[in-house]
Structure formats: structure tokens, C-alpha cells
Amino acid sequence: MRIVIASDKFKGSATGAEVATALAAGIAAVLPHAEVEAVPVADGGEGTLQAAIEAGFERVTVRATGPTGEPVDAAIAMRGGVAIVEMAAASGLDLLPGGARAARTATSRGTGELIAAALDRGATSIVLGVGGSACTDGGAGMLQALGVRLSTGGGPVGPGGAALAELVAVDLSGLDARLAGVEVVLASDVGNPLLGPQGAAAVFGPQKGADADDVAALERGLARLAHLIDAHPLARPAALTPGAGAAGGVGYAALAVLGARREPGIEVVQRLTGLAERIAAADLVVTGEGSLDAQSLGGKTPLGVAAAARAASVPVVAVCGRTTLEPAALAAAGFAAVYALADLEPNPAVSMAEALPLLQRVGRLIAEDLARGRFAGDDSSVGSAGRE
């Protein structure tokens, strides 16, 4: 019996690797001779770097600028000429001092410094994984770190998206020349444009601490940046391009100035980890994330893994902290069963605090169902905690 566990993190409770370890322990208690392989995966956001490292990439530590200007020890991953840059490693919400949000002033400069570090090490292809960012600066900080000059009437523009409203000039001539020979892939499952009611400020700003006034100020700043860059002869208009609103507009800067092409993050990570080949030899695939909901259907990790399993005709089950999806939607997504921790422990606070022992219990349930042949043929059906 061979089981592949390819789960994303349970945010606030466990990393993808911890989820896999707990599930594997539960499975081993019931099926001690089963071969269980853990493949850490992510959707382009947090966890992408670790997934690459566990797939054989080398971790390279980089000193970079944090989201509020403080120095942080971040990292990139390298293998040959391919570099993995995870935005959250230098510009993430989790790096905010004391967790205090800085919606108007947080910067993506550190992400640009990570890209520069990859170039210094000879990268010819850069995967920019975005997600979990603290900033809404349209990638301005990232561009400045790579040599772009953004000026107000009195000098360089300050950090953060709100300051961009004072922008009067964009000079792209100083952009790091090495980027001209580098393929840049924007790994993101976010299809939002930069501006408007579905844009970076309106949709994601509140997650970063922005109130209504902050959102309005950030929208003005992003609109000013886009006005100047979209009209620049060395850039390509991208404000309306799907994915431009990713990571507070870093997607926009990558598409418009760095010449990036966007790919679904889960597909990029699957390619890096060789997940399809591992799934093809499996009897069962287990995937999951903290909340299996409507956003998951937009292309997050579990759906990507389910698609790969379906292509290989291997049954796949999902594990989650909770799900808000109806059984019909879960079945349509390809899941033979869904096991929610909330069905074992309905108190959300307790469920998050005790996620690992609960995941071990779920591992036992999965193994018991597998041993009974539940996932063979037409015997599979989606139910509460994986049950009928």
C-alpha cells in the first residue's frame, strides 16, 4: 500500500510538513506496513520555499529589509540556475514587529532584495511566489530595490502604498540589466486586477489592517503608480491583467516591469516537486489545508492536488480544519472523502490548538477506511469526517 500526503499548511496550527507527519503517524498505527511519502506543497504563498528545499533546492540565507524597514534574515532556494523567491520570507505579515499592521507604509523592498540576491548567484529563472504579504505598495519597494527610481517633487517616494499618491516620475532605465536575460514566473492563484472594487487595496487591504480611509489612500497611490508605469515605453500595461492585484500589487510590478508570466502557484510547486510522478505510483493521495471553502475552488492547493490525482486515476481525500462546502461541491472537485477536524472537535480554538493530535486521529480514520476498501471503485462518497 502506497500513500502520498501532499498537504498545504493549516495556518496558525501546523506547517504542511507537520500535517504530513501527524497524518503519517495515524496511518502507521493502523497500516504499519504501508509506504507513506510526504510531499510538502503550497499554492505559491507561504510554504513554497520549504517545498522547494525539501525537493532538493539549496537554502540560501539573505539579509533583507523587512516590511517596516527593519532588517530580517530571509532565504531563497537555488538549484542550478533556478531560484525560488517567496515574498513572505522578506515582506510577509508574520514579519511585522509585534504583529502590528502597517497598511499604509509596509514595503515590498525586501522582496526586490531577494530577487537581486538570486541574480547575484547566477539565476536564469526566478519563481516569485506571492502570498501572505504585509504591503499594498504595488511592488514599488521591490522595483526600487532593483534599480527603478520613483520620484516625488522633493526626492524619492517614501515606503508604502499611500505615499505613491505623491509620485510624479518613474525612471525604469536603472532596472537591473541582468533581468533582461531571466525568465520570471509569478506563482499565484490570485486573479484580481490591481485597481477597483476587486483590486489589491479593496479586497486585500483590510486583511493587512487597512480601514476605509486607508483603502482609499492605497487605491489613490496604486492608481498613480499604474498611470505612470502603464504609459512608460519600457513597461507593458498590466493594471487590468489578472494577477496584477496579487500580494498588494507586487503582481502588477512583476507583470508590467519584470516581464513575468503568471502561472497558478500549485502547478509551479507540483512541477518543482515532481508531484505528478509520485502520485502516479500511489494507491491513495491525501491533501488538505486549514479551511476548505469557496476560495479553495479557485485553484488552491487541495484542488490542484486533486486534479493531478484525477489525471492519474488515483483516489484522493482531503483533510481540513473545517469546510464550508456542500458534499456535492466536494465530490465535484474530485474528493472521495473529506475529513474535517471540526467534526472531531467542534470548538475552533481547541481544534487549532490541538491540530496535530487531531490529525493523527484523522490519519487512523483514513487508514481504517482504506483498509476496508472504501476508496475502491464506486464505494467512495463524501461525508462528515470522511464517514457516510
What this model shows, in words?
With 388 residues, the protein is of the alpha/beta class. It folds into 2 domains: 151 residues, Glycerate kinase, domain 1 (Rossmann fold); 218 residues, Glycerate kinase, domain 2. The protein contains 15 helices and 14 strands. A 6-stranded mixed β-sheet has the order 3-4-5-6-10-11, sandwiched between helices. A 5-stranded parallel β-sheet has the order 2-1-12-13-14. It has a 3-stranded antiparallel β-sheet with strand order 8-7-9. Helix 1 packs across helix 15. The chain is elongated. The two termini are 23 Å apart.
What's the number of domains? 2
* Count of separate DSSP helical elements: 15
Give the name of the CATH architecture of the largest domain.
Answer: Alpha-Beta Complex
> Level of helix content?
25-40%
- Strands, count: 14
CATH homology superfamily of the largest domain: Glycerate kinase, domain 2
CATH topology of the largest domain: Glycerate kinase, domain 2
Radius of gyration: 22 Å
CATH class of the largest domain: Alpha Beta
Outline the biggest β-sheet: 6 strands, mixed
Provide the residue-averaged pLDDT. Answer: 92
Query: pLDDT below 50 for ≥5 consecutive residues: which ranges?
Result: none
Which sequence of SSEs, written as H and E, runs from N to C? Answer: EHEHEEEHHEHEEEEHHHEHHEHEHEHHH
Q: How would you classify the quaternary structure?
A: single chain
Ends: how far apart?
23 Å
Proportion of beta-strand residues? 15-25%
- Class from helix and strand fractions: alpha/beta
Query: Reading side by side through the largest sheet, how are the strands ordered?
Result: 3-4-5-6-10-11
Basic shape: elongated
